[in-house]
Amino acid sequence: MIVLTKLDGKQILINEQLIETAYETPDTIILMNNGHTYIVAESLDEIMKKTIDFRRLSRRRQGGNS
Length: 66
What we know:
Blueprint lengths: L1 E4 L5 E4 L4 E6 L3 E5 L4 E4 L3 H18 L5
Antiparallel strand pairs: 1-2, 3-4, 4-5
């Protein structure tokens, strides 16, 4: 899961595996595959970086060397 910031400043955990679509309008909107929508302060680039970092950390914890 990744930590993102709602526009009111509250942090939320998002299961990055459930993200269906994300786009900027200029706010970043995340549509989950369960139908929930979140508007967050992070840019698309930041969300991608957080997702990649989380997946790398998860693989290390599972014993992978990637």
